[in-house]
């Protein structure tokens, strides 16, 4: 079983939020992210969390070492995302995450932002923080 991680899971690992422990736990299982997810992490860490560049760069280097792969954004990914957004009613940037996860052959997408339990193209969306609360 291969997991793909949405940005929010990465973000919680660099906070004091109670969800940090669960985010760390699911990330330890390994998996895949896309360049988009890393880009979004940088934006959130800098803009919302007000982290300094050295802290962001350290987190990025640790993420890159822990993931099995970092998927690029390609024209094919973009095209798939447009189709997914249209046919599944997803927000476009969520559709880009789903498209990258499907292209990577992942079974699970860990995300707090999408519908828990929904299956798209063989990919099951799981909210790891909801699961931890049960």
Structure description:
There is one protein chain. The protein has 134 residues and is α/β, with parallel strands linked by helices. The chain has one domain: Rossmann fold, CATH 3.40.50.1010. The chain is built from seven helices and six strands, in the order E-H-H-E-H-H-E-H-H-E-E-E-H. The protein has a four-stranded mixed β-sheet with strand order 1-4-6-5. The chain has a two-stranded parallel sheet with strand order 2-3. Helix 5 packs across helix 6 (92-103). It is globular. The two termini are 22 Å apart. The mean pLDDT is 94.
CATH H-level name... which superfamily? 5'-nuclease
How would you write the strand order of the largest sheet? 1-4-6-5
Distance between the amino and carboxyl termini: 22 Å
Strand proportion, as a percent range, falls in: 5-15%
Topology overview:
Layout lengths: L2 E3 L1 H6 L7 H9 L3 E3 H13 L5 H14 L2 E3 L3 H14 L3 H12 L4 E3 L8 E2 L2 E4 L1 H6 L1
Parallel strand pairs: 1-4, 2-3, 4-6
Antiparallel strand pairs: 5-6
Helix pairs in contact: 5-6
Question: Key features?
Answer:
single chain, 134 residues, alpha/beta, Rossmann fold, four-stranded mixed beta sheet, two-stranded parallel sheet, 7 helices
Short recap of the structure:
It is built from seven helices and six strands, in the order βααβααβααβββα.
